[in-house]
Design goal:
The chain starts with a helix and ends in a 25-residue tail after the last helix. It contains seven helices and no strands. It is mainly α and about 190 residues long. Helices cover about 65% and strands about 0% of the residues.
Length: about 190
């Protein structure tokens, strides 16, 4: 019984995050921010990386100040990187370190994480940083399925590329890998 409760705990946190995101999408941004911040206080900045990544990703969307939004998006990226690093054994109390679905979820979020960072940097007037993250978003989006989510992310990347004046992988700087493709990040900006 205790083992079953232990396995349900991570899903219940993600469910709670999802419920607050629905509140935000329904238009109650202030209440959503308040509840997400409460969850953040509960989870803590050293909590489960999948929870921190997901929570920070959505907390960024509730911010009024572009600098605050950037800070939350950077927290989300940092937590995603923790999930995708080789973590033999994981940290004590880290429930996703040994779950491959945590790393898969983080990889699926990379296009959106980098797209959000590109938009944040653009709003703050940091065009080169915006272009860098937009290239990373484009490269990471190659792994997305051709479903509604994947097409939506790719369309948003295309719109931001147009706004920034075209920043595809071949128009702005050398490729990060020998094959010319842009892969997920391994370092923070």
């Amino acid at each position: 019984m205790a083992k079953g409760q232990e396995q349900a705990a991570p899903d219940s946190v993600l469910t709670r995050i999802g419920q607050v995101v629905m509140l935000h999408h329904a238009g109650d941004r202030e209440e959503a921010r308040h509840r997400l911040l409460g969850l953040w206080a509960e989870i803590g900045e050293h909590g489960d990386p999948l929870h921190r990544c997901t929570l920070a990703h959505y907390l960024a969307d509730t911010q009024d100040d572009p600098g605050d939004e950037l800070a939350w998006d950077l927290r989300a990226l940092s937590a995603a990187e923790e999930l995708t690093e080789d973590r033999s054994g994981g940290r004590s109390g880290d429930r996703t370190a040994d779950r491959p679905e945590g790393a898969l979820a983080a990889r699926a979020l990379y296009p959106s994480l980098h797209l959000n960072l590109a938009a944040d940097y653009d709003r703050l007037g940091h065009r080169e940083a915006a272009r860098l993250h937009l290239r990373r978003a484009r490269g990471a989006a190659e792994s997305l399925a051709p479903d509604r989510y994947g097409e939506g992310v790719r369309a948003a990347i295309g719109r931001l590329e147009l706004r920034l004046g075209g920043t595809g992988p071949t128009t702005d700087g050398p490729p990060e890998r020998p094959d010319g493709r842009w892969g997920p990040p391994r370092q923070r900006p």
